[in-house]
Amino acid sequence: MANSTISVRSATLNDLDTMTAIGLAALPDDPVWPYRYPFAAQFPEDHYKYSRIRYSEYLANVEAGAYAVMLAEAPSNENPDVKEIVAMSMWQLPGSHGTDPNGPTEVQKAMKPPADYSDRRDASTPRMKAFRASVGANKKKTFDSTYGEQQLNLMVLATRPDYQRRGAGSALVQWGMKKAKEEGLTVTLFSSPQGHGLYSKLGFVEVGTAHVQAEGEELALTLPMMVH
User: Fold this and answer.
1) What is the mean pLDDT of each run of 10 residues along the chain (228 residues)?
2) Whole-number Å distance between alpha carbons of 68 and 219
3) Whole-number Å distance between alpha carbons of 142 and 138
4) 2 — phi, psi (to 5°)?
5) Are 82 and 18 in contact (CB under 8 A)?
6) pTM of the prediction?
7) CB 87 within 8 A of CB 28
8) How far apart are alpha carbons 158 and 102 in whole angstroms?
9) 8 Å CB contact between 47 and 122
10) Nearest of 213, 175, 169 to residue 191 by alpha carbon
């Protein structure tokens, strides 16, 4: 059952600082994050700077019609009469997946996917490259080949640690599920270990896995690929 105290709305550029704070607080608990950014504690300035840039790039793609960035608001722990942003989600919309047989759509021409910035000191460049290559290849092989432009791809889901397991993440995923149902789309995503239970509970099914491993390293990630 949906939590009636939680509301969902579109993000704006005015929300950028809050989005950055949520990402920095929540995503390090996801194994994918420390895998790609193992030096975040050593270089916190870079980690903040490039995280903020990344979220600004997501918002820029909203203007291009390629992405949707949705926020969940809930009553404040300090003052229940005041709502504050507690979770965020980033979605890739139809028309931006690069599967149109007629070539790039106007949306795809206008979009500029977030960059990896190889000069950032908080990151492992080989791991970032391996992650992007694996996710890109597996998305194309499994999601794009099956659903084409008729998919709504969940790219990021993050909830403030003090609001986790209180319905904010569910509300954002259900926003996407409702949109997909209304528009005849399939929701696709690469799951983190953290999110797998939530997605399964909401009815997502696993259709494959993506293996991420930088050349010469033993450490690797396995990301379940799920659809609804």
Assistant:
1) 82 98 95 96 98 97 96 94 96 94 89 91 97 97 97 97 94 98 98 93 98 97 97
2) 33
3) 6
4) -65, 145
5) no
6) 0.95
7) no
8) 35
9) yes
10) 169
